[in-house]
Amino acid sequence: MTVKTELDALIEKMNTNPVHIESEKDRVFQVTLEESGSLQIVLKAGRVAVVDGTPHHPEVTLFLTDKNFSKLLKDDLNSTMAFMTGSLKVEGKLGLALKLQELVKLYQ
């Protein structure tokens, strides 16, 4: 299963049961993957969408491998340790990177 497929499955869960995202502010999270390139997770009006490339201005960008992003999507990645060891790099609002992990955790 590719990370895009895993992400699409998570997004479907979120949009099917938006209870945890309905009150969230509109945000753009960008993920730049070593193997697959860039994608954006767009949270707007209580819905989530995935967009290939970088058409929107992100508030936070995460740089990591496809394998580590897959782990993050499964809530198997300790993002604090990954950040401290350099496996995860963050540009922009660090708090939003943690918010993304929190949202993922809520849908596991």
What's the short version?
This protein has helices at residues 3-16, 66-73, 79-85, 94-106, and strands at 27-33, 37-44, 47-52, 60-64, 89-92. With 108 residues, it is of the alpha+beta class. The chain has one domain (3-106): Nonspecific Lipid-transfer Protein, Chain A (2-Layer Sandwich).
Describe the structure.
This protein has 108 residues and is of the alpha+beta class. The chain has a single domain (3-106), classed as SCP2 sterol-binding domain (Nonspecific Lipid-transfer Protein, Chain A, 2-Layer Sandwich). Helices cover 39% and strands 28% of the residues. The protein has 4 helices and 5 strands; from the N terminus they run αββββααβα. The chain has helices spanning 3-16, 66-73, 79-85, 94-106, and strands at residues 27-33, 37-44, 47-52, 60-64, 89-92. The chain has a 5-stranded mixed beta sheet with strand order 3-2-1-4-5. A hairpin with a 2-residue loop joins β2 and β3 (47-52). α1 runs parallel beside α2. The longest helix is centred in the first third of the chain and has 14 residues, at 3-16. It starts with a helix and ends with a helix. The mean pLDDT is 94.
Blueprint of the fold:
Blueprint: H1 3-16, E1 27-33, E2 37-44, E3 47-52, E4 60-64, H2 66-73, H3 79-85, E5 89-92, H4 94-106
Parallel strand pairs: 1-4
Antiparallel strand pairs: 1-2, 2-3, 4-5
Helix pairs in contact: 1-2
